[in-house]
């Protein structure tokens, strides 16, 4: 009898696990939604969702929590990619929440709309009756995210309690919820930033151009290079702007997302750069996560991603 040995690569194993998660959630929940920002992690999630249900279309909409302070290159890519796939895009707007008085915009030099995403996110989940929201969080990004389960329970207020986590044995997920509750689902939990970039190269996925080195007007604050072109970061007179060759490791609210100095203009160059770094992308590029050790955990408890 002939014996066949099958050896899967690391990316194959991660892909298979993520596809299993997508299919399991689609089977167990009535109204899933995929949170899509136009960033590299959500782009990879879209590809995994494509593969999970091919040749059928992706059976759930995608939702972007729009701060209104986004990089134009990312918004252009978001709209174009969603149109190519033919999926329904839902936009939960922070500006609408401000205009309606649901949230109050921060003032001052360090003002950011990043934290204000919580209210429109939870409002949209309630409005559309979503019971499961796919997110692109990875455990290697930050300490609070390392505490998450793959299927992470949220109570009727959208809150996460890290001390009340459900056990996940092997690939068995507890999907039971009651009316008003929902779960966040993280198919990329076991991926690293380097895995994401290797998968982008293997699948030949297009990314917004700000992920690659380009010349940009920036200014320095607390060791971060913040964008000076969009005007969303409140630059002070004592923070001179200058041009530099930079790229972004993550995308988000332009008021608090920093760039890194880089000459990596190709996929191979970016992958080599990521393989050599010892600082997580959030630690190197997110001003709001530097305010305290518990910054991300506090937002997650309030209902943030």
UniProtKB/TrEMBL annotation:
InterPro entries: PAPS_reduct_dom, Rossmann-like_a/b/a_fold, SO4_adenylTrfase_ssu, Sulfate_adenylyltrnsfr_sub2. Keywords: ATP-binding, Nucleotide-binding, Nucleotidyltransferase, Transferase. Its EC number is 2.7.7.4. GO terms for molecular function: ATP binding; sulfate adenylyltransferase (ATP) activity. One of its GO terms (biological process) is sulfate assimilation. Residues 282-305 are annotated as: Disordered. Residues 32-258 form the Phosphoadenosine phosphosulphate reductase domain. Heterodimer composed of CysD, the smaller subunit, and CysNC. Belongs to the PAPS reductase family. CysD subfamily. This is Sulfate adenylyltransferase subunit 2.
């Amino acid at each position: 009898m002939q014996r066949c040995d099958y050896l899967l690569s690391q990316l194959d194993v991660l892909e298979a696990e993520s596809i299993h998660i997508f299919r399991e959630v689609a089977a167990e929940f009535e109204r899933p939604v995929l949170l899509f920002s136009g960033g590299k992690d959500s782009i990879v999630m879209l590809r995994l969702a494509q593969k999970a249900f091919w040749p059928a279309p992706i059976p759930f909409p995608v939702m972007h929590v729009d701060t209104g302070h986004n990089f134009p290159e990312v918004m252009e890519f978001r709209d174009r990619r969603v149109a190519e796939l033919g999926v329904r895009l839902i936009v939960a707007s922070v500006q609408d929440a401000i205009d309606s008085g649901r949230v109050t915009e921060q003032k001052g030099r360090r003002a950011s709309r990043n934290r204000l995403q919580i209210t429109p996110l939870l409002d949209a989940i309630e409005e559309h009756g979503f019971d499961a929201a796919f997110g692109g969080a990875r455990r290697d990004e930050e300490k609070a995210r390392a505490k998450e389960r793959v299927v992470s329970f949220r109570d009727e207020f959208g809150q996460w309690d890290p001390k009340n986590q459900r056990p996940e044995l092997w690939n068995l997920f507890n999907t039971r919820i009651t009316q008003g509750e929902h779960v966040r689902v993280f198919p990329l939990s076991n991926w690293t930033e380097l895995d994401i970039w290797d998968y982008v190269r293997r699948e030949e996925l297009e990314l917004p151009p700000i992920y690659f080195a380009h010349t940009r007007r920036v200014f320095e604050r607390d060791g971060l290079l913040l964008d000076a072109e969009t005007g969303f970061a409140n630059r002070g007179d004592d923070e001179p702007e200058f041009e530099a060759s930079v790229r972004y490791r993550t995308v988000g609210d332009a008021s608090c997302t920093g760039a890194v100095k880089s000459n990596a203009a190709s996929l191979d160059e970016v992958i080599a750069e990521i393989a050599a770094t010892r600082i997580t992308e959030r630690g190197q590029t997110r001003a709001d996560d530097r305010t305290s050790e518990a910054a991300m955990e506090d937002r997650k408890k309030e209902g943030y991603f």
